[in-house]
Amino acid sequence: MNSTIVIPALNPPEHLITYVDDLIRSGASKFLIVDDGSSVEKQYIFQKLSLRPECQILIHENNQGKGRALKDAFSYILSKEEYKGQNVITADSNGQHLAADILRLDFHMQNTSHSSPCLFLGCRNFEKENIPWRSRFGNRLTSLLFRLLYQETIMDTQTGLRGIPYEFLEPLSKLKGGNDLNTK
Question: How far is CA 136 from CA 124, 140, 143, in A?
Fold first, then answer.
């Protein structure tokens, strides 16, 4: 596996540890995990993960949101020579993305022309019975709005599974949003 896996986490479940271990056994070798202001009770999870040589932990003292966690991870990757040229795969901290899906995404990213890099988005199956109505409705609404505004169809606008080419990290890390809008 050639991509760096970025996992933003706010009070993650304990099984984040076994999830990362499963991904390591599957061939993942670089993780950047952002503790986005998690409670004291959850710090043991990050401490255990920090013992793995494959894992680097970034810490936000206070919760700053998933967008800020991702942008800080992208900026960190851009600032370190060891990550130069590596694509990024983002995954949620609840372990909902299968290792096989992450490996498949990495494979597709490695086999896509670098002359025309593209963003890959995972897509959850919203037809499953266990998907809450609120999630299903919210995703359908934002997909419709996205289609109306941009004439592009994205089936899962809220996916946490994304494949991001290295070339996209700098512009993504500079996007304005959230707290950035309050600064000059």
Answer: 10, 6, 11
